[in-house]
Amino acid sequence: MDTSTLLGKILDSVFYNTSLKKASRISKNTVGILTLLKGVLGKIQAEGKSTVLATVKNKILTLGKLLKFYATGDYRNIDLKNVVIIITAFVYFLSPIDLIPDFIPMLGFADDIALVTFVFNSVAEEIEKFETWLLNRDIS
Fold first, then answer.
1. Which of 59, 78, 87, 140 has a beta carbon 3.0–4.6 Å from 23's, enabling a disulfide?
2. How large is the angle between the packed helices 80-94 and 14-26, nearest 10 degrees?
3. CA-to-CA distance for 127 and 62, rounded, in angstroms?
4. Cα separation of 10 and 28, whole Å?
């Protein structure tokens, strides 16, 4: 399956657009962000034993940590549009019914992995700033 074609289908899908609308609302709500993160971590723990999701587990954890610090107000040096993009990927990830439903063996998480990888790469500069902030925070 060609990932660029898959990614294009994801970004054009009703599932992504629905996730984007939900993400816009969630981004304004600390409790909503933290609840979303709890769901994402629960799904990773439940499904994380599969080698398929293991490929993006660290990316999800890094994005999740950034969102957690954002939600608690400890870290705000990120563009809101990037917060919404990350939340959109997580809302999409949590949905069992999306472009490729999660219950389809072997293929179910292909769209989730493609989207999380795309978002991770899209916000790479934000992640780098965040990780630098974390290191400096831990040193002081």
1. 87
2. 120
3. 8
4. 24
Euclidean distance between CA atoms 102 and 109, whole angstroms: 6
| Tokens of residue 63, six digits | 């994005």
Phi, psi of 92 (to 5 degrees): -60, -45
Q: Angle, to 10 degrees, between the axis of helix 124-139 and the axis of helix 51-71?
A: 60
- Residue by residue, pLDDT tens for the chain (140 residues) are 455 689 999 999 999 999 999 999 999 999 999 999 999 999 988 876 666 788 899 999 999 999 999 999 999 999 999 999 999 999 999 998 899 998 887 788 899 999 999 999 999 999 999 999 999 986 75
List CB contacts of 126: < 8 A, sequence separation 6 or more: 66, 78, 79, 82
pTM, rounded to two decimals: 0.92
Cα distance between residue 40 and residue 36, in whole Å:
6
Distance between CA 113 and CA 31 in Å, rounded?
26
* Spatial distance between the Cα atoms of 98 and 44, rounded to a whole number of angstroms: 17
Across the chain, the runs of DSSP E, i.e. the strands, are: none
